[in-house]
Write a structure and sequence with these properties.
The protein is an all-alpha fold. The radius of gyration is 17 Å and the shape is globular. The structure holds heme C.
Length: 174
């Protein structure tokens, strides 16, 4: 088996797992294949990527785990999109940047997260992430994400947006 075949095999298995999960989710939701629009189907596929790649830490409902340093997305994460550095942070944060999702998939999952968990905090002129934007920012890893997150929280609170708690109880909390 060539390396290319093995990689293709891996991608195939991941897509297949996502498809199985998607069917299961649809079955639970009582949706037949016939009545979902293609936009709704795409949204379900993106949600399946979130469930497989992100929800282990962020939980299916986005609440995270403050005790473990995983911030709550709900009514919070959208505010980052108000600052250029915050918009970029959502791509470069390790859990997103280092996930197995490709750039187009990550763009779609970030857009889904923002609209699902924090639409009220998004700026009125919010432009959805694109594959190109993710591709440009993603390789620039942070050396240390903690001060970046605290700096953005301070800048946003000066604008009246209070982010979900982060690094609760840690000695790295400012
Ligand atoms: C292993 C656990 C883990 C996984 C898996 C994970 N994350 Fe995270 N995520 C974190 C932690 C911890 C933070 C807080 C920043 C930090 O310390 O890295 C975070 C922060 C974030 C933030 C910024 C939220 C904020 O309020 O600062 C976004 C957006 C995000 N993650 C997206 C994702 C996406 C999208 C995925 C799936 C592709 C994902 N994460 C997978 C642990 C994870």
């Amino acid at each position: 088996m060539t390396r290319g075949m093995r990689l293709a095999g891996k991608g195939w298995r991941r897509r297949w797992a996502a498809a199985i999960l998607l069917c299961a989710t649809r079955a639970v939701a009582g949706e037949g294949a016939a009545d979902g629009s293609s936009a709704a189907q795409l949204r379900q596929a993106v949600r399946a990527d979130y469930v497989l790649q992100c929800a282990g830490c962020h939980r299916v409902d986005g609440r995270g785990s403050s005790r473990h340093g995983i911030p709550d997305f709900r009514d919070s994460v959208g505010a980052f999109a108000r600052l250029p550095a915050g918009r970029e942070y959502l791509i470069r944060v390790p859990g997103a940047a280092q996930s197995q999702l490709d750039n187009a998939e990550l763009a779609a999952v970030l857009n889904w997260v923002l609209e699902e968990f924090s639409p009220a905090q998004l700026p009125a002129d919010f432009r959805p992430y694109t594959e190109q934007e993710v591709e440009a920012a993603r390789p620039r890893r942070y050396e240390d994400v903690v001060p970046v997150r605290h700096g953005l929280a301070k800048a946003l609170s000066d604008q009246g947006f209070n982010l979900a708690d982060y690094s609760y109880g840690s000695d790295r909390k400012p």
